[in-house]
Amino acid sequence: SVPAAIASALSAGARHGILLKGGAVIEAAARTTDVAFDKTGTLTRGRPQVTDIVVIKGHEDDLVSRAAAVERGSSHPLAVAILDHANRVGLDIQVAKDAHAMPGKGASAQVNGVRLTVGSPRYAGDCGVMDDDALAKAQKMETDGKTVVALFSDQVCYGLIALRDEPREDAFGAVAALKKLGIHPIMLTGDNARTAAAIAGQLDIDHRAELMPQGKVDALRGLTKKSQVMMVGDGINDAPALATAQVGVAMGSGTDVALETADVAILRNRVADVVGTIRLSRATLRNIR
Ligand code: ADP
Ligand code: MG
Fold first, then answer.
1. Is ligand 1 within 6 A of the CB of residue 43?
2. Nearest CA to ligand 1 atom 13
3. Which residues have CB under 8 Å from 198's CB, separation 6+?
4. Ligand nearest to the CA of 189
């Protein structure tokens, strides 16, 4: 019977750490034509490492410790990586006040009486503090697939910090498997166009870059007009995007994956389980019909 087939699919999924929110989700997932992925933490490991420090004004230790001070209040993967780096090097991290996040752009706080921002070179450029030389250095590192952030005040850019986040081991196979199923995979990211192109090139996946959080929602809205879209993200920062796609998939490890924000929760933090979700859903519908 239909209810029995659905119940058995739900429990088969659950055995593999794939929680589906009901029969309607199975039906919607089976019809998927496009899978949109968030980049950071979904297609990449989400654990960037500091690779380069470019001082423009002042001293290197000061650059890193002030950047870490600004980032202390933020849970963004870039913030975590900069704090880790400062701690590993053994720097004293200064006290910051009035910290706030600017999603898709950076973070800002008051350090020793000066308002400082750690953000994308593009945002630093919009703020009028990036000269051509600094911009060229940033762009060169971005072309290598690194993400670059600048530390700047409203007057001057103090320097650049480059970070590298590797694609996940299983992302390559998952992207290839989706294509074999006739599904179009696409990466959506707020990262800059050069870094995004380098990572998308490694994974051989279509992509859209420099999307602010609302830009991801708009991009998805466009996709859903023509396609049946599954959106895969971490479910914390991506709730609006997950809600916009026909099927929202939250991927993470264990308890931090909230099924409230998504139609599907992947508990074992494996991109391959996205393919598993679609295969299971298709097989279930085939049994019912
Ligand atoms: P993604 O789509 O890769 O998850 P985000 O939208 O989170 O990217 O961030 C986009 C860009 O905004 C980052 O690449 C970075 O340049 C900048 N940014 C966002 N938050 C921060 C932060 N806390 N510190 C530094 N840069 C940040
Ligand atoms: Mg993100």
1. no
2. 191
3. 142, 143, 144, 145
4. 1
CB of 209 closer than 6 A to ligand 1? Answer: no
Q: Residue 19: its pLDDT value, please?
A: 94
Residue 226 burial (C-beta neighbours within 10 Å; 0-12, 13-18, 19+)? exposed
Strand partners, 185: 35
pTM for this predicted structure: 0.91
Q: What is the DSSP string of 34-71?
A: EEEEEIIIIIB-S--EEEEEEESSS-HHHHHHHHHHHH
Average pLDDT per consecutive 10 residues, the chain (289 residues; last block may be shorter): 90 95 95 96 94 98 97 92 97 94 93 96 96 96 97 97 96 98 97 96 97 94 98 84 95 66 91 97 90
* DSSP secondary structure letters along 211-224: --HHHHHHHHHHHH
Q: Are 287 and 5 in contact (CB under 8 A)?
A: yes
Interstrand relation of 184-188 and 18-20 (parallel, antiparallel or unpaired): unpaired
Nearest ligand, CA 212: 1
148 lines ligand 1 (CB under 6 A): no
Q: Which domains does the chain have, with CATH numbers?
A: 2-45+167-288 (3.40.50.1000), 49-164 (3.40.1110.10)
